Amino acid sequence: MHVVLDNLPAFLRATRVTAQLTVISFLLAMLIGTLVAGFRVSPVLPLRWLGTVYVELVRNTPLLVLISLFVFGFTKIGIRYSYYASAIIVLSTYTGTFVAETVRAGINTVAPGQAEAARSLGLTFSQLLFAVVLPQAFRSVVAPLGSVFIALIKNSALASTIAVMDLSFLGTQLTNSTGRPVAVFMGSAFFYLLLALPSGWAIGWFERRVAVKR
Amino acid sequence: MTAPFIAESLGPRGKRRVAVVSAVAGAAIAALVVVAFLRLLHKGQFSDRLVAPLRLWAVQRFVLLGLLETVKAAIVAMALAMALGTLLALGRLSRNVLTRWLAGIYVDLFRAMPLILLILFCSLGLPKLGIHLQPFGGVVLALTAYNGAVLGEIFRAGILSLERGQSEAASALGFSYWQSMRLVIVPQAARRMIPAIVSQLVTLLKDTSLGSVIGFDELLRRAENTGTYYGNSLQVLTEAAVIYIVINFTLSRLARRLEVRQRRRYKAGPIVVPGGGMDLAVMGAQGTASAI
After folding, report:
1. pLDDT digits over A122-147, tens only?
2. Distance to chain B for A151, nearest Cα, Å
3. For an engineered disulfide with B70, which of B62, B219, B244, B282 has Cβ 3.0 to 4.6 Å away?
4. Which fold is adopted by the domain B54-291?
5. What confidence tens digit (pLDDT) does each residue in B112-124 have?
């Protein structure tokens, strides 16, 4: 345990990096996901296609392949970002597919009468989507979106493969420098739990708060 | 198979507007594709030097043998994880407090851990404890430990999704706990769980790629090595991605098909994994299913 206590500042720094990666990527993924979910329920055929193609291609590719492809492949055509930015781009692109599917599922739980009523009031598709359907849809998918968030905390660990100094990277680094892998990995795992458990509680609380009481 | 969009019956003006937006969006997408193509062409990414290696049988064999390792690891880990998951589910449903508690801690702990941490631990940590594993063994062990916890929750949720009347009827008929489990509960629960299990298999198959980090010689690692050798990472990694997509897309489709069929046949909804079900695949399957 000494190894963890001696390197506590490093662990805290790495925890902050993991938290940052997660939060920034999640916000971007929410944007992408909501937009794509909107595409997929819109009456515009090319946009529906685009949404479907994006979701099916990205979701079925392993995250690590996407990271590899972006960092080692896309540089060949001049798309080149820092490792940290690359990690955020790939994580949000990947997570965006899951957000899109979740939000789309939420949209489908909204009673058709709601959309019909909005239509008969003369709302346009985007008015109907943003003012009537999405607010109701989000309420019903708080828990699944929370799962996406917690999965993202874990997935952010793959950023360590491209030398982003997060908790997993610190784990490998300290293992090599101290030769105490068991204590170090328990330390990393502890800090992941420290991020994941309170997130879980917060999501539960939020879910109860916005739940539709019938 | 796109979901029915909202408010589909449009008036004449709506139809005109949709037609205009469709044309604009279609043109924008086409332009994007053209730009991407020109960029690739401009950077010489279609040159024979980079593409020709993909047609070499030696290279194809090298990559496909990597795929074989991927599939092998996925199948072995899936089988072991199903066994572990069964034990964990039974443990969490057991009448013994200690068993319930231990299984609960295992599940919560391992589901909350990044898989890559477990894989790195199997490769860097276990040798310190005197356990030396080949990369294949390390990957399978980590995948089993993690997916066992996830599948345990799926199994538990499947069993709990049955109406209480089923187990009550079984005990009214004089069945013991194990008899009712074996003859009444599990056969029905298993059917409901199949889509979620197939989805988890997709996740597991994708996760085998993490083995490349500790030197497991699977599809991704072989693609990366090929790319480094020929300098055509973009092409080879795209090929690897396409292979993963074809396999996973087929499996996802299968899961969805099974779910729709069972819904129609048994009028049973998807099972819900409680406790902030941390896994994407399960959730994804439920998400898509409720969208149908």
Report:
1. 888 888 888 999 999 999 899 999 99
2. 6
3. B219
4. MetI-like fold (1.10.3720)
5. 899 999 999 999 8
